[in-house]
Design brief:
3 domains; 5-stranded antiparallel beta sheet; 12 helices; 15 strands; 31% helix; C8orf32 fold
């Protein structure tokens, strides 16, 4: 078998096991050139992928490919050359450090800007974005600013009634603490979930809300997994909340986990997806996946939002739409020397 054939077979095997975004959610984001550049598999291999069933939208000669399909295909390929593989490996490099680096105090700058996605914003415009809650896990908001004047905090959402753009920025501190689940019932539910053979994938948020649809297909992205586990915990008699927030320092800034009240009366996060993500890090600490079940990590930033809620909203001209949004989060300092 030639090297080229071996490369093609590896990519084709990844495609065979790929969960592709359903037609009702697929968006043709990349043209052919952009898709080949993202995957870095070569023109000939890409032709084989298309012939083997890599889905697309558009007319022949003007095909366009979904960004989630390409991302998931790249990670499954194990090529070590694609843009998603290189990017996620770099973003998760902090997972190879020990427990002290997951709990030490970190400081961050956080900025979000939003504007209308239409050429002209319609009548009665409004914007909103879920508020961050660093104090929920022992952190704090150090400074804060919003633009324009008139932004209000309404039920945990920063809300503007009027034309955008709308933006806010903050400096905040996060901290973590290591703990574990005490309840045998909770541990059994988590163990059963981990043993079920689900795979993590990136898919559109609204698709993840239908966690039964996702998990029947054998996949469990973070929102779906959180909603499922919250349901299972509640069936077992525990108070649980599937939370939306951020896992700071990774590509997909928004993240979800479950918060459940353990037998000792302490509310603890359960985030098996963070453990799965560590598989894409270079030499992750072997204790990281275990710590993600019950420990608060200094990379977790909760939002005032349920897992199946919209982080950002916009309405104008009597229609709802997702605003154009740019989120930039940067670490500025750490009490842990050498932390990244």
């Amino acid at each position: 078998m030639t090297a080229t054939t071996a490369t093609a077979q590896r990519w084709l095997a990844a495609l065979e096991g790929l969960y592709q975004v359903p037609d009702d959610f697929r968006v043709g984001y990349f043209d052919r050139a952009g898709a080949v550049d993202l995957l870095r598999c070569g023109e000939d291999v890409f032709d084989e992928l298309v012939a083997a069933g890599l889905r697309h939208t558009g007319e022949p000669g003007a095909e366009r490919y979904d960004r989630y399909d390409l991302f998931n295909l790249a990670l499954a390929s194990g090529s070590k050359a694609s843009v998603p593989e290189k990017a996620i490996g770099y973003a998760l490099r902090w997972m190879n450090q020990g427990p002290a680096s997951w709990t030490s105090g970190l400081e961050w700058t956080f900025s979000v800007s939003m504007e209308c996605p239409h050429e002209e914003c319609g009548a009665d415009p409004s914007f909103s974005h879920a508020r961050m809650l660093p104090d929920l896990v022992g952190g704090e908001l150090l400074s804060w600013s919003v633009e324009p004047d008139g932004v209000r905090d309404v039920d945990g959402r920063l809300t503007l009634d009027g034309p955008g753009p709308m933006s806010f920025s903050a400096q905040l501190a996060t901290r973590g603490r290591v703990s574990e689940l005490k309840s045998p019932a909770l541990r059994r539910i988590v163990d059963d979930f981990l043993a079920a053979g689900y795979r993590w994938v990136r898919v559109p948020e609204r698709l993840q809300w239908d966690h039964k649809r996702m998990m029947s297909a054998g996949v469990a992205p973070c929102i779906s997994a959180s909603l499922f586990l919250a349901d299972e915990f509640e069936k077992a008699g525990y108070k649980a909340f599937a939370r939306r927030g951020w896992l700071l320092g990774i590509l997909d800034l928004a993240h979800s986990w479950v918060e459940v009240e353990d037998d000792d009366g302490v509310v603890k996060p359960v985030d098996p997806i963070a453990g799965w993500l560590s598989e894409y890090a270079d030499r992750p600490d072997p204790e990281f996946a275990k710590a993600a079940i019950g420990s608060w990590l200094n990379r977790q930033l909760p939002a005032a939002l349920a897992a199946d809620g919209l982080m950002a909203t916009h309405r104008c001209g009597h229609r709802d739409s997702e605003p154009k949004r740019a989120t930039i989060i940067r670490r500025t300092s750490s009490t842990q020397k050498g932390a990244v």
